[in-house]
Amino acid sequence: MREYGLSIVIVSYNNMEVIEQCLNSIYKYNDIGKNIQVIVVEQSPSNDIYEFLLKEYTQFGTIIIRNENNGFGAGNNRGFEHVSKEYVLFLNPDTILIEPVFKYALDKFVKNDKLGVFGIQLLDKDGNKNLSYNYMINFGLKFILTSKIKQINDSDFDGKKMYINGADIFIRSELFVEIKKFDEKIFMYGEETDICLRALKLGYDIKFFSDKKIIHLEGQSTNKKGVYEKLCKSFVYLGKKYDIRYKSYLRSELIYYVIKLKIQKNLTNDSVILLNDRLNVLRKYII
């Protein structure tokens, strides 16, 4: 019987602790042995993490690549150049495995030729459900509310209207080539929507499975200056690319933050500054 394999591509940026936790958990819960391939694309400004990974993880067969930070998609595309397995998991570095998932993933693909992309249940550090998928950006206020309150019932998943969270994208290698990989014009955020839309166009199914789980620490990177604007730029680009109502998304986001400023009590000065900065960015792209 033919043995299939899984390549894991991780784009690492400027956080040694999270990439170390992620890699250790992968090797701890590796249930497919030699049929796993791990590729880390290290994009931090300094060489410290790269040199650490070379020293500690190449002994396990991990491929470590030094790369300029041209964005999430570009980093994953660089890692994919080294992929040798039939299936790929694009995994965020701020994830921690808590159970074996790799044989499960291979079985899902092998048993369903139409399965193109899927994700599994994400949990926060306390073990609560994290947002594992969401509506694509043309669904306006519904998208915003589910993003903020992080509540969608598993039974609500619709692979024709929703994307899989980019923290764990399982995909066929041949499909990833067929859809021409990640669009490198998207620096960060929105890549999942783009990947899922292109897979759907080719007739593949997008699925979500809740019976396997991964912790997603989900750092607060969007709180850093300039990062939120990159998010908005990505959604504007996607809106134009697919002729979908990106301004509806931006207006909904603006309404959400206006309401939050007005009704939420005990906001810190930093939170008020952050919300006002986001409102200024949104107004710029709505006009």
From TrEMBL:
Residues 7-158 form the Glycosyltransferase 2-like domain. InterPro entries: Glyco_trans_2-like, Nucleotide-diphossugar_trans. This is Glycosyltransferase 2-like domain-containing protein. PANTHER family: RHAMNOSYLTRANSFERASE WBBL. CDD domains: GT_2_like_c (cd04186). It comes from [Clostridium] fimetarium. It comes from the Bacteria. Gene3D superfamilies: Spore Coat Polysaccharide Biosynthesis Protein SpsA, Chain A.
